[in-house]
Amino acid sequence: MWTAVSQAFFMVFEPYTLMVMVVAAVYGLFVGAVPGLTATMATALLVPVTFFMAPVPEVAAIVTDTAMAIFSGDIPGCLLRIPGTPASAAYTDEAFALTRKGQAEVALGAGLVFSAVGGLFGTVVLIVAAPALADFAIRFSSFEYFWLVLLGLTCAVFITSDRPLKGVISLFLGLMVACVGLNNPGGFPRFTFGNAEMMGGIGMISMMIGMFAISEIIRYVVDTRPTAELVVDQVGNVLKGQWILAKKYPVQILRGSVLGTAVGALPGAGADIAAWMSYAMSKKFSKEPEKFGTGHVEGIVESGSANNSALAGAWIPALVFGIPGDSITAIVIGVLYMKNMNPGPTLFTTNPQNIYAIFLIFILANIIMIPLGILCIKAAKNILKVPRNILMPVILLFCIVGTFAINNSVFDVIVMLVAGLIAYLLEENDFPISPAILGVVLGGMLEENFITSMIKADGNFMAFVTRPIAASLAVVTLLVWTMPLVMSRLRQRRLA
Amino acid sequence: MKINDAFFGLVLAILGGLVLFTVRSYPTIPGQQVGPALFPGLIATGILVCGLALIVRGWLARKAAPWAVPGEWMRSARHVAAFALLVASVLFYIFAAQALGFLPTAMLILWAMFYVLRVPPGKSLLIAVITTLAIHFMFYKLLRVPLPWGILANYSW
Description:
A: mainly alpha; B: 157 residues
């Protein structure tokens, strides 16, 4: 093990990797701080560039960029009352209220320091849990994987959205897209319309760029709201008073980090949902809930640590099972497949140095977040002044070229445009997008394990539930499916 | 832009039906009962059922939810133009980049988008040229992506 750890050290503490991390950090901080550009979009746009790198620097770029973007999303939330990324939306009003009271540095400082703390907590859980889970998962057969993927997809639909029907539809559409091409148990060209480009399936990265970047540009160009005004000129020392906050709210920090890691690990639910749940929980258990919403820092401390811990949590199922915990890890899984580093329990035994390198990168990213974050807050005034009517067309061009670069084919650009338009239309009509992403990423795996299991079972459906772990997973899956029905029945009975 | 659920239901039901019709002709894996038709068939059945459910839901809610509510931006000519131009620029790239070349295509796209988003004309021309050259350098020189030269093929660098 120690040889692998030292190998990992050499891979991470190499000038090239470190340089990539610094560049990715600056990029992440910038993208997160500009309202309308999300952390997921930052990652999707990063892929065409990092595509040409070795796996370790590439993963380093993605991890650093997302950690920074989730923190810096707090900056415009605090100064403009517009969350920079959806993950900051939960406590934007609270942070802005603090700014109104002249305490912008307290809100930003809490966001920064407890983002790093939460991120490090999530990393520790990742380091402890992932190898243990991998040891356990190595004995899984196609039956267990079938139920596991089904459970993951089920969670994505029922836990992350309050509209199960639209969530299921979104999931089915994603699974349908995954069916396109030759990559199926019979090796038969499905839904290709005789088009050679479609034989290989619909490119995942071009689709993600469409769904996360193009749809965001569309939302910008059709936005009719007036632009927001900056209310502060100067932000004070952000680190001042944070140690006192840490001593005052230790339970909140721990609770936020635990909840964040757990929500992150659930497929489909990422940093934004972790922040919302954690803010609500903080208010519920607070000794002074009446202060929430008036510029009270407690909720920011708790949900600020939750959204960053969720990032690391999402990597647990992604690395061990190849099931993404959020839309960012969905992109990561696509990247790992392209690099022949297929996620799964064997990744921990065949290439442990890569796994340790990922752990190290997480630790490093959360540490450099503090100094770089302080610089970013200092520069916030200028970043927020970057004219978005210049930025958005440049991003559009970048999307086109980046998508083209993946296969050197304009077919991918078509996929990007169509995916962007569909994602925009669906989101406008309250269809959640993350089940569709999960469907695309996991469709192939679900089908493969389903068909293999069907062949092994040879018509006997009991075979799906005879192995104990498979049976337990099946029970949990069915429970999640039936829960909403039972709950609504109970509610009706109580009303009657 | 909000559209009544029944419309989405109809589109989905048709999609589900078409897929079910298509997979009927798919072969099975030799010697097995199952094949490439099974999985998409199940998904398509799901899409069909959900589509029908949406039609019912949209029909029942037709008094509260009109068939289509245009977004606020659709009443503003400038926003409609920006949206149309955004889609048109990507299409323009798809169809024109090969013949026209990356540099002119990209500059035109940027300049048009800047125009419709009200960037001052002089500034927009300058930024369009600089950005295009920077992206070209990054992808063509550093990442070695074969961006097309088009009409500038004789002056390539």
